[in-house]
Amino acid sequence: MGARPRFESLPGWAQFLILRCAMPFLLVAAALIPELIVKRFFPYPFLFLFFGAVIASAWFGGMAAGLFAVVFSMLAVDYFFLPPVYSFSVNATAGSYLAAFVICAMVGSWVSSSKKKTEEALKDVRDELEHRVSDRTAALMKTQAELDHLSRVLSMGELTASIAHEIKQPLTAVVAHGHACVEWLSASPPNLERARQTAEKIIGEGTRAGAVLSRIRALFKKEIPLKDWLDINELVQEMITFLRQEALARHISIQTELAGGLPKVEADHVQLQQVLLNLMMNAMDAMAGTNDRRKELLLRSRRESANEILVQIEDCGIGLSPDTAGRIFEPFFTTKPQGIGMGLSISRSIIESHKGRLWATPRPAGGAIFQFAIPVHSQDTDADAD
Predict the structure, then answer these.
(1) Nearest 5 degrees, angle CA 240-CA 245-CA 247?
(2) Do domains 160-220 and 228-385 have the same CATH topology?
(3) Which of 108, 157, 243, 361 sits at a 20 to 30 Å CA gap from 174?
(4) Is 332 in contact with 161 (CB distance < 8 Å)?
(5) What does the alpha-carbon distance between residue 383 and residue 106 come to, in Å, rounded to a whole number?
(6) Per-domain residue ranges for the chain?
(7) Does domain 228-385 sit in CATH 3.30.565.10?
(8) What gap in Å lies between CA 333 and CA 266, rounded to an integer?
């Protein structure tokens, strides 16, 4: 292993003499000895070993070493094998034979040195490619580390935006009920019954805000949702009751087409409330600028298949453009001037945590249809699994 470094440490002229002169001479001499032994058994010169010496010299020492090997081989063949032997004189017949030998040897030398150069060039290219791949791999690993850090930062921002989005509605209701409570107490005489009812609503909204925060935290920590057996139609009716005053203020009619006899689904009550609330509020917002037709919000439920219940929220608002249809579920993407783009992203995460699907399609008559499917399985099956 230490021979090559020692050789490379020699002066340039010494390396030249060894590779270009000494090595060809030694290889030709090594070929000459068995050629002289074989000469006794063949009437014609057996010169294949000289070709091997020429090819090996050109391979290890380059074209110059190959030419030196051709010269040494030519002298050896002329002196030892061609008549008159043991003489460098050549007759006409032997001269043709020797010329053919020299031409073949030179061709072999050229082919060998060219092949060696090609392999060395390929090796250099391969080494350069490996070096570049190594550099690119290191750069990609550094980029991946930076992306992981950025992902953690964005996740924190997404969680913050989600909390702000989801508790905005209950906190707004708390403020509105608080003002109403003050008004009832300021009346003469104070309307204590209405004030008490309003205070109870404040407590309910505050409790709902706390539940929303707990569910969001569980969602981002990928905890198992707190599921119970729910009637989808009852959940829809709850949200209609909750948003009825908001719909009346916006001159929006809420219609339902709820299929009867639907089986209960195992789901988190608060999380599905948030999904329905977000989809219904989005539908109302989409109809805010609609004045050329009746504003109507339609909620449907039906058995989509043996294993799924489908809920649809249909509006007659501005609809979905091709540019926004593919991006509406992306975090931080919004078409609202005051929106933060988290509602639909969170809603899809909630539905997917329930093994369901949430998607949107354009409404043929104008508007949009948001729909989600929740899987159904028997309560008896669930009890057996427990």
Answers:
(1) 70
(2) no
(3) 157
(4) yes
(5) 90
(6) 3-137, 160-220, 228-385
(7) yes
(8) 30
**Amino acid (one-letter) located at 77:** V
The answer to whether residues 354 and 268 touch, using CB atoms and an 8 Å cutoff, is yes
What predicted TM-score, i.e. pTM, was given to this entire model?
0.47
74-93 confidence digits (pLDDT tens): 888 878 877 777 777 777 77
- 308 in helix, strand or coil? strand
Cβ-contact 232, 262 below 8 angstroms: yes
Looking at domain 160-220, its CATH architecture is: Orthogonal Bundle (1.10)
Nearest 5 degrees, angle CA 258-CA 260-CA 261? 140
**What tokens does 300 get?**
């449907």
260-310 per-position pLDDT tens digit: 889 999 988 878 888 898 899 889 988 887 777 788 999 999 998 888 999
* Spatial distance between the Cα atoms of 29 and 34, rounded to a whole number of angstroms: 9
298 with 311: CB under 8 angstroms?
no
Distance CA 28, CA 49 (A): 8
| DSSP line for 5-67 | HHHHTS-HHHHHIIIIIIHHHHHHHHHHHHHHHHHTT-SS---HHHHHHHHHHHHHHHHHHHH
Instruction: For 334, list phi and psi in degrees, rounded to 5.
Output: -145, 150
Query: What would the two tokens of residue 38 be?
Result: 């074989």
